[in-house]
């Protein structure tokens, strides 16, 4: 049994962590922070957790967090980077759901996140926790940077093509759509039902902060600099991301082997499902599940590979992947607490 703390327990990813950890047999949650709701019983704010947690939200307090074996940060960017050094010195392990430790180039980080990075030494040591790529490094990591939601869906979908050098790496396209929970729980007019319902729009087309993260991951997979166009869209649903990915095959005669390549690449991955060629994975098939489902397509006489990749942004795109990382770090079965299939309808 390990003792776990959550900093930022009132946000969407924080409560998703609680939902998953409520039934995790190896975890006791000993501390859940919120500055605005300190003193409120967790189950009063989230009745779905009644009977599971007899805890109140508390102010973030390093002396309490230092008594944990692992702390999850489910906070806005810029918070974890300031609190992590003290926890690292105390030997606590951390999974950070924010972007503070995801990018290795800290000039790029500062450019996208609008502040200088304050703990470059930990940014360098952090492991970018996409288990399907760096499982062995995660096992021994003290600090894991949990990947972003869009970057998870996009990287998993492109990985086999880039690792095998089958496509032109300079002309990748990721056309991604997300539900509104991706923007978090803090009130914003643009996220009101009346604003996003019955509507659908692209945003960040000239550049989104996930672009450098996607570029970093895909460059690692390809072994050389990639060129990627990434455009996110906001769709009127709550959970889910669908990323439609496009890449140009260098040798179109290789098309027939791609399905087998994808199936083989993810054969031993418990949380990646390669569907039959030509399928259309739906976000509802992963809603609430720590799962990425994907399928390959080809249009007639085209040498463009199309991959459709879906995840739940709050689960494989955030809290579920964070628990998957925790399981790997502590030597628990990787699927522990994460076995539940998606909610339908
Ligand atoms: N939503 C999503 O789909 C995904 C989110 N993420 C990332 O995960 C992180 C959390 O996201 P999400 O749950 O959506 O965010 P929310 O805005 O819903 O919640 C943020 C939480 O952090 C706490 N918090 C805010 N400021 C501070 C601070 N200075 N110190 C300590 N606690 C603070 C808030 O509580 P209080 O203010 O009361 O302390 C709240 O509990 C973000 O970095 C986000 O980018 C990553 C992948 C997907
Ligand atoms: C729909 C929506 O607004 N999505 C968020 C991205 C999700 C997120 O939380 O970003 P991180 O993974 O970097 O933490 C956005 O575009 O800013």
UniProtKB/TrEMBL annotation:
Protein name: N-acetyl-gamma-glutamyl-phosphate reductase
Membership in a protein family: Belongs to the NAGSA dehydrogenase family. Type 1 subfamily.
CDD domains: AGPR_1_C, AGPR_1_N
Active site residues of this protein: 149
Compartments, as annotated in UniProt: Cytoplasm
Keyword NADP recorded: yes
Gene Ontology molecular functions: N-acetyl-gamma-glutamyl-phosphate reductase activity; NAD binding; NADP+ binding
Chain ranges of the Semialdehyde dehydrogenase NAD-binding domain: 3-141
Function, in words: Catalyzes the NADPH-dependent reduction of N-acetyl-5-glutamyl phosphate to yield N-acetyl-L-glutamate 5-semialdehyde.
GO cellular component: cytoplasm
GO terms under biological process: L-arginine biosynthetic process
Pathway: Amino-acid biosynthesis; L-arginine biosynthesis; N(2)-acetyl-L-ornithine from L-glutamate: step 3/4
Organism: Marinobacter pelagius
SMART domains linked: Semialdhyde_dh
Catalysis: reaction(s): N-acetyl-L-glutamate 5-semialdehyde + phosphate + NADP(+) = N-acetyl-L-glutamyl 5-phosphate + NADPH + H(+)
Keywords: Amino-acid biosynthesis, Arginine biosynthesis, Cytoplasm, NADP, Oxidoreductase
Listed EC numbers: 1.2.1.38
Top-level enzyme category: oxidoreductase
């Amino acid at each position: 049994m390990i003792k776990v703390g959550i900093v930022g327990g009132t946000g969407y990813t924080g409560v998703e962590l609680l939902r998953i950890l409520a039934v995790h047999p190896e975890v006791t949650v000993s501390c859940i922070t919120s500055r605005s709701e300190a003193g409120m019983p967790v189950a009063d704010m989230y009745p779905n957790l009644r009977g599971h947690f007899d805890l109140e939200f508390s102010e973030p307090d390093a002396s309490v967090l230092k008594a944990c074996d692992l702390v999850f940060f489910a906070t806005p960017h810029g918070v974890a980077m300031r609190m992590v050094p003290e926890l690292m010195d105390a030997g606590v392990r951390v999974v950070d759901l924010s972007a503070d430790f995801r990018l290795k180039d800290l000039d790029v980080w500062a450019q996208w996140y609008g502040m200088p990075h304050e703990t470059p030494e930990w940014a360098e040591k952090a492991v970018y926790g996409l288990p399907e790529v760096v499982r062995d490094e995660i096992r021994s990591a003290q600090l894991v940077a949990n990947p972003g939601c869009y970057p998870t869906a996009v990287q998993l979908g492109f990985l086999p093509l880039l690792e095998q050098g089958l496509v032109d790496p300079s002309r990748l396209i990721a056309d991604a759509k997300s539900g509104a929970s991706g923007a978090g729980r803090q009130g914003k007019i643009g996220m009101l039902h009346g604003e996003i319902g019955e509507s659908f729009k692209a945003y960040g087309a000239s550049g989104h902060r996930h672009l450098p993260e996607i570029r970093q991951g895909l460059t690692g997979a390809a072994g050389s600099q990639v060129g990627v166009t990434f455009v996110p869209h906001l769709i009127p649903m709550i959970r889910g991301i669908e990323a439609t990915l496009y890449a140009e095959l260098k040798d179109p005669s290789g098309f027939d082997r791609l399905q087998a390549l994808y199936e083989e690449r993810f054969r031993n991955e418990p949380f990646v499902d390669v569907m039959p060629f030509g399928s259309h994975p739906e976000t509802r098939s992963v809603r609430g599940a720590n799962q990425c489902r994907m399928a390959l397509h080809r249009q007639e006489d085209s040498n463009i590979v199309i991959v459709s990749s879906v995840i739940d942004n709050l689960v494989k795109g955030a809290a579920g992947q964070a628990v998957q990382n925790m399981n790997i770090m502590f030597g628990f079965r990787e699927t522990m607490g994460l076995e539940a299939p998606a909610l339908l309808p």
